[in-house]
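> Could you send the Ribonuclease prediction when you get a chance?

Sure thing. Input:
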Amino acid sequence: MPAPSVTPDWAFEREHWRRGHFRVAGVDEAGRGAWAGPVTVAAVILPGTAQDYPFRDSKQLSAAQREEYAAEVRRVAVTWAVEHAWPQEIDRLNILGATHAAALRALARLSPAPQALVTDYLRLRVDIPISAPPKADALSYSVAAASLLAKTERDRLMLELDAQHPGYGFAGHKGYGAPAHRAALRDLGVSGAHRRSYAPIRALLDDPDGLPRLL
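Output:
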């Protein structure tokens, strides 16, 4: 596949290092826009040595590359954690609130604890310094590392949901609004893996004629 157009670096981390905050956690999520399955958030502290890594925004990589690099993240990280917010929590809190809640759970599991954060435009309420630039998963090694863990772990869970809820094609579209997913919803109705607060799902629930069967 073509080489990524943007290579991450340590610019955001260095700003925190200059202030004496050497344990900088990168935070990223996967699955915010999906109609089904969890939103998954990863937090990673890489060694503060400013070395180059092959890590990239997970969207720039093939599935095989993501798996390879995620294994490397787990090998080299000082500490890492992955947490999920499932559809029930998303429906209760809304997607942003659920993403924040999962991020805070992941950060609480890091040991040693982070002294600063870099996130992909996720403005968490924390009592440590935070940088939240847009597209940080393509710009920061720490956030790219988190994106790899979040994406690969969520993809694994969507394979499990595919087995639990056959017919929806979760293994392929990962819960996003692909044509095959729309067709399956028309044929099968809404499953327990779906986010009922999302407009397309809510519309089906509100229209009995559009729901042949509610699972």
